[in-house]
């Protein structure tokens, strides 16, 4: 019996799950309004409201590397709370924060990965190297002096360089930021930064910076002359993704219905266009595929974070 059924007293469990959702559904986004996850959550919410007959309302709860919003969903007992978030929260945060009061792999049900995206390694125009392979050679000649910016310790933009350093036996200088990374790359305060596609591609097109590498397995149509990460570091790529999770109080039948709808919506031509307009690739996968992706990345990033002794608590 679910928490939602208990709250409805004598309502039979079968009737409750068959009609899910039976009232407003809250979509928690652990990021600020106007960010990529927020935009996507609102797009999916509009479609889900129409197809499932109940309002899907976005609630922004940013902070603590996504933990504030995620924890609120993990603690939800109303049977009508979802999380629209990104892969760092279940795959990196458990290793970075030793005292989390929730476990996404136990307290939530994966629904569907909606999209994948990548990063562009942007560099100052006066930085001598023109590719990541050249940057690695450049850094070997001056260990610990070639600076790169990141979005902070333990973020993908930081951990990517940790892997590059280990696999190429080079040493770069890490400069963590909270904001203004690309501005300082343009100004030459730091040499490089891994920037997500949606914000990186306009900067690259403006020629205020140059692109040294893309992190997807294949070169981008938008940057056909820019090598992939794997061309410099064989076997290494770096993809970010977004997806939907359901609170454990959502009944299994509700999760299944939601997964089918999210996958259907992702296949719509207008949704695919809107996702690609944000420099991302639509997915709309199954719950099982999402679980496998989480487990694989949890192990991958856990090994890196443990080896480097990176902690944020």
Which terms would index this structure?
D-Maltodextrin-Binding Protein, domain 2; Tripartite tricarboxylate transporter substrate-binding protein; single chain; 313 residues; alpha/beta; five-stranded mixed sheet; 11 strands; 15 helices; six-stranded mixed sheet
Give structural notes.
- 44% of the residues lie in helices and 19% in strands.
- The N terminus is likely disordered.
- Strand 6, helix 9 and strand 7 form a beta-alpha-beta unit.
- The strands form 2 sheets. It has a 6-stranded mixed β-sheet with strand order 2-1-3-10-4-11, with helices on both faces. A 5-stranded mixed β-sheet has the order 7-6-8-5-9.
- It has 2 domains: 184 residues, Bordetella uptake gene, domain 1 (D-Maltodextrin-Binding Protein, domain 2), CATH 3.40.190.150; 114 residues, Periplasmic binding protein-like II (D-Maltodextrin-Binding Protein, domain 2), CATH 3.40.190.10.
- It has 15 helices and 11 strands.
- The longest helix is centred in the C-terminal third of the chain and has 22 residues.
- It is α/β, with parallel strands linked by helices.
- The radius of gyration is 21 Å and the shape is globular.
- It starts with a helix and ends in a 5-residue tail after the last helix.
């Amino acid at each position: 019996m679910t928490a939602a059924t208990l709250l409805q007293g004598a309502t039979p469990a079968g009737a409750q799950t068959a009609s899910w959702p039976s009232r407003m559904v809250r979509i928690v986004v652990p990021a600020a309004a106007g960010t990529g996850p927020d935009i996507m959550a609102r797009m999916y919410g509009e479609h889900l409201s129409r197809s499932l007959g109940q309002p899907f309302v976005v609630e922004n709860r940013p902070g603590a590397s996504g933990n504030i919003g995620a924890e609120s969903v993990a603690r939800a007992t109303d049977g009508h709370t979802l999380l629209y978030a990104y892969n760092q929260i279940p795959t990196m945060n458990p290793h970075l924060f030793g005292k989390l009061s929730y476990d996404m792999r136990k307290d939530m049900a994966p629904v569907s990965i909606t999209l994948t995206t990548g990063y562009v390694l942007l560099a100052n125009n006066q930085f001598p190297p023109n590719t990541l392979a050249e940057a690695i050679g450049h850094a070997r000649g001056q260990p610990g002096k070639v600076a790169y910016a990141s979005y902070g310790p333990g973020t993908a933009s930081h951990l990517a360089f940790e892997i590059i350093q280990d696999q190429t036996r080079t040493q770069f200088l890490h400069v963590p930021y909270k904001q203004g990374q690309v501005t300082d790359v343009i100004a030459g305060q730091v040499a490089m930064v891994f920037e997500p596609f949606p914000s990186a591609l306009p900067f690259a097109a403006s020629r205020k910076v140059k692109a040294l590498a893309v992190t997807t397995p294949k070169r981008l149509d938008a940057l056909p002359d820019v090598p992939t990460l794997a061309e410099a570091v064989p076997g290494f790529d770096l993809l970010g993704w977004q997806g939907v999770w359901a609170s454990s109080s959502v009944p299994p039948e509700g999760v299944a219905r939601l997964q089918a709808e999210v996958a259907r919506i992702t296949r719509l031509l207008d949704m695919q266009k809107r996702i690609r307009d944000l420099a991302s690739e639509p997915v709309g996968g199954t719950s099982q595929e999402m679980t496998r992706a989480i487990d694989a990345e949890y192990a991958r990033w856990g090994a890196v974070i443990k080896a480097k002794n990176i902690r944020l608590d």
